[in-house]
Amino acid sequence: MDFEFYLKQGFFHVLDLRALDHILFFIAVTIIFTLKDWKKALLLVTFFTLGHTFTFALSAYDILLVNENYVEFLIPITIAIPLFWNSFNILKTKTSKSTNIYFTFFFGLIHGLGFSSYFKMLLDDDESILKPLLEFALGIELVQILIVLLVLLLGFLVQKKLKVAKKYWVIGVSFLILLKILPMIWERFPV
Fold this sequence. Notes:
- The structure is a single chain.
- The chain is mainly α.
- It has one domain.
- It is 76% helix and 0% strand.
- α2 runs parallel beside α4 and α3 runs parallel beside α5.
């Protein structure tokens, strides 16, 4: 298969409405940023993708095998942590602290474990894993950048044009995402 196929698969995998975890994660991580902080926000995207691709590769090569039930449970937890972190920091200080790149990398490691079975289904039996994996990861990176830029733009419009205070933007969006992920946590709790 060709470059474009895996690039599109990575791109549209993130946009699959049945698997909102990437979208919700990046909204959770970036709502704290302003439009002028776009470089910091995109750095988080890259660190997430590096972590995601690393464990994705280990899992795809059957080097690291983890019970998918635990991974699926941890994914919404990785979304909840930045929500609480950002909400706590926006209320506590005048200068808000975003989720740092090391946490984002670690969360990427967790998310990457959840995709290897899907990815393996895409491969031909005789196809090597590395090249398609990197193409797939590039598709994921591109759509994540798009999501982050849209969140930053929406945040700008809400805060500057509609005059909504940053703390209300962060807390309001965090609350909405929390409403979405609480059932995910409950349903995926490993028993």
